[in-house]
Design goal:
Blueprint lengths: L18 H8 L4 H22 L3 E2 L17 E14 L5 E15 L3 H10 L5 E7 L1 H6 L13 H21 L4 E5 L6 H4 L6 H13 L9 E6 L29 E5 L19 E7 L9 H11 L8 E5 L14 H19 L3
Parallel strand pairs: 1-4, 4-5, 5-6, 6-7, 7-8, 8-9
Antiparallel strand pairs: 2-3
Helix pairs in contact: 1-2, 8-9
Length: 356
């Protein structure tokens, strides 16, 4: 655990990949050569986070193609680009993204702790966060055309993924990881990805309770859930404020920290925070990673004060609304803006809570 004092300046997980890493990945070099370049990039992003003063650091998700690519390196049985979906920008323009779908029953070939955690552990004395996709998100990518030979139904696939991710989380905890974060953006746009959903509240409660199984009861970790509205090349999927569905998620989400997107009008107000469990910290994603324009410290402090009308200040923290690179190409923002925004997270956390 990170100690009694909650982390106030949170780190969502992903950072912009340096150009040399993107170039190397595009060349499709042998894995050993790619790993060596990834190692260099991870060491650099660790140094960046330590210089900022973050208490909890990540590997930037630099070994992943997408934020949900954790299964790619630990199991056999996926077509890495077999499922097609889309994100859109504010003007409604769609961008295609291809995601892994099961084509054979999944068989474990490794552990996330070996692939991501151990390298970081050997290079920092800070607490480390590892992020994982929610099983119910991965189940969205079960394909009616490609997957039934491996798993007859979406639900059978989801249940096996729960088992696999739970194993990874337990192994991370055994080796001393401090924070494990489950990413579940689809909660915010469920009916766009599960189009046959009739009772959204009931389906959300079902998915939340299923996803809880990944981290619930694992000793020694700070557990976290991130619910945004999608993030791919500065595009998004969901548009509805939390007001319409938070009551079906937050009371049932069994996590120490809940990270929420609050960077624009799509998020609505802070009223839904009243649905949080009384032992949970709400991490306010007030700083956007989609655009380089900077927020002001005064504006952020005012918004935190507004949120504190619904949840006590001591149960609040600050972050960006999402990672800077939910896929390897990253958002349409540059490294200078990324640095400035993370510095702003630190500055405001110190101003409001006196700590990071």
């Amino acid at each position: 655990m990170s100690g009694a004092q909650p982390v106030r300046a949170d780190n969502l997980g992903s950072f912009l990949r340096p150009g040399y890493l993107l170039e190397t990945r595009a060349r499709k070099l042998p894995l050993a050569e790619l790993r060596a370049v990834e190692d260099r990039a991870v060491e650099e992003i660790l140094a960046f986070q330590e210089k900022l003063g973050l208490r909890v650091v990540t590997d930037g998700e630099f070994r992943r193609r997408h934020f949900f690519s954790t299964l790619d390196d630990v199991v056999d049985g996926l077509d890495p680009e077999g499922y097609v979906r889309h994100h859109r920008d504010a003007a409604g323009n769609l961008a295609e993204v291809r995601t892994p779908t099961p084509v054979r029953r999944l068989r474990r070939t490794g552990y996330l702790a070996d692939i991501e955690y151990e390298f970081v552990r050997a290079r920092t004395d800070r607490d480390i966060k590892v992020t994982m996709p929610a099983p119910s998100l991965l189940s969205v990518y079960w394909s009616e055309q490609l997957s039934p030979a491996a798993y007859e139904t979406r639900e059978l696939y989801r249940d096996h993924v729960v088992e696999l991710l739970r194993e990874d989380a337990e192994e991370l905890a055994r080796r001393g990881v401090a924070h494990v974060q489950l990413d579940a953006p689809h909660y915010a746009y469920l009916q766009e990805v599960m189009t046959d959903t009739e009772d959204r509240d009931a389906k959300l409660r079902e998915l939340v309770e299923i996803d809880n199984q990944v981290l619930s009861g694992i000793p020694g970790i700070t557990s976290a859930l991130h619910v945004c509205r999608g993030n791919m090349r500065s595009r998004f999927t969901g548009t509805e404020p939390y007001d319409g569905f938070a009551h079906a998620i937050l009371p049932y989400a069994e996590y120490d920290r809940i990270l929420l997107e609050y960077d624009d009008e799509r998020s609505g107000g802070f009223g839904p925070l009243r649905h949080l469990r009384e032992d949970a910290v709400a991490v306010l994603g007030l700083i956007t990673t989609k655009r380089g324009a900077m927020e002001s410290a005064d504006e952020l402090v005012a918004r935190i004060d507004e949120a504190a009308e619904h949840v006590p200040l001591q149960r609040l923290a600050l972050s960006t609304q999402c990672g800077f690179a939910s896929n390897s190409l990253g958002n349409e923002i540059d490294a200078a803006a990324q640095s400035a925004k993370m510095e702003l997270v630190i500055e405001v956390a110190m101003s409001v809570w006196g700590s990071v």
